[in-house]
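Technical note accompanying the year-one report. For the benefit of new consortium partners, we illustrate the data format agreed upon in the data management plan: each record pairs a sequence with a structure-token string. No post-processing was applied to the example shown here.
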Amino acid sequence: MNRSMHLVTAALILLVSGCASITQSEMQRVSITATHEGKAVQDAECSLTNDKGTWTAKAPTQVDVHKSGENLSVVCKKAGFVDGLLSAVSRAAGSMFGNIIFGGGIGALIDHNKGTGYDYPNSLPVQMGKSVTVDKKDEVAITQAAICQTGQKC
């Protein structure tokens, strides 16, 4: 009986290890800015949309959005400017892979449905009059390059 309890406990630990539903929020704070020809555009009306909802804000600001496996679409408008369009690519967080490996996919399914297993880029730099795509993997590469330039071990 004691051995079976240990096996059940070990199985439960494996099922929840890496579970983003436990370790991450369904929401993510993103910073949105609007520029035109390199100059800041103040008070551009921005709408951020994915399959979980729509959020509105005036750039520059930070917005809490519901994470999703779907990309986040951003449209910024301001009189005198052509609309700025941005697509923020949704990337699976590392916890999703842990769920697939250790949890047999059950945790990954829960995290997918809740959005907790995904991340967007933290910065959404909208360029008025243009359509751009931003990707979390590029953000990570830029951060890594900056660390390497400071002389830290890479």
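Partners are asked to follow this layout when depositing records. Confidence is low (pLDDT under 50) at residues 6-22, 142-147.
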